[in-house]
Amino acid sequence: MNARKKAFQQGLRAILTHRAPVRVAASVRGASPARRKVLKIAPSLYNRAGMLETNQIIQGDSVTMLDCAPPGWVDLVFADPPFNIGYLYHGYNDRRNDDDYLQFSTDWMKSVHRALKPTGSFYLAIGDDYAADLAVIARRQLGFHLRNWIIWHYTFGQQPKNKFARSHTHILYFTKSEKGFTFNPDAVRVASARQTTYNDVRANPKGKLPDDVWYLRPQEAPEPLFDDGCDTWNISRVCGTFKEREGWHGCQMPMGVLDRIIKASSNPGDIVLDPFNGSGTTVVAAARLGRKYVGIDQSAEYVEHARKRVEHALDTMAPQPKSSGGPVVTNLFGSVIDTTRSSKVMTETDAFGRKRVPRGRRVKRTA
Q1: Weakest-pLDDT range from 49-63, 200-214, 234-248
Q2: Could you give the CA distance from residue 196 to residue 216 in angstroms, rounded to a whole number?
C-alpha cells in the first residue's frame, strides 16, 4: 500500500471518529437545535443575520453549514463533487454504493437549492457515470430548471485500453427559477466565424454566445493564459506537469472554465458558493472578478492549502490602466502560473494512488 493511500485511509478513519469539542457562545441562544449544534462549534462562521460570512473558506460539512443558514442568500453555485470513481480524497471515501451516492447527491443539491436566491444559478460538473441520474434528481425532485447540458471537451484525456478515450466532463447549468435569473451574454461573447473567417457585414460586432460544447480556443480566453509561453492551452485538464497545477488535490478545475461561468451568471458584488471547495479554483476566480465567495470543504488540509492559494492570488492581482470609458481591467491569470506560489505542493502520487513519473519538456536535438 503506497503512502498516499495510507494517508487517505487514516484521514477517513479520523473524520469518522472525530468529535469536535463543544464551545458555547452567546449567539447560540434562541437558535434552532440544528443551528445551535453548528454555532457551538464555530460561532464566528455566521453573521448577525445568520448567513455564512463571505470571503472565507470553511472546513465543515456543506449540507450542515448551508441548512443552518437562512434560505435564499447565494447568487451562484459551482459544484465539482466527488464522481464516485475511486479517487483518493483526504478523509472521504469515493467508493460508495450507487444508492448511497445518489442519496448523498440529493442531500447536498437540496441544500444548494435552498441557499440560492430566486435569481440564482447552479452549475454542476459531473462525470459520465452519474450525470443522467443527477440531472433527473435536480429537475424532477428538487425543482431546478435545466438551461444547458454543457460538454466541456478537454485535451489530455486519459487513455484506456478497452474503450474510446474519455476527453470530456458534463457541466449541467441550472437556474432556480424559470425566468428572471442572472445571465450576462455580453460578458462571455466570442468572435464568430462570420467575423474571423468570412468578414460578413451581417455579423454581430459584439461576437456570438459560446456553444454548449466548450472547446475554448485562444481567442476565447483572456491573455496571458493562452500566450505562447503557457502550457495550459485550449482548456486542457490541469495535468500534473502544468504550471497551473496546485499538486495537492487530485481534481483541479481550470481557471478558464470558472472565469466563463462566473462572468455569465453573476455580477460584481454577488455571492459565489462552492460546496466542494477542493483546490479552490472557484473562490480564486470569484475573488479576482470582484465577487464575494464562500468555499466549504470537509478536509482541513485542503482548506489550509486553498486559503494560501486565494491569498496569493489577491496579493498578486495587478490592476491595469483604464480603457476608454470602461472598467479597470485586471490581470486575472498571472498568479495562476506563478511557480513560486506557496500553495503549490506536489504530492508523491496522483489521485488514484499511482506514483508520479518525473516529466519535462522534450528538448529538440540539434544536428
Answers
A1: 234-248
A2: 15
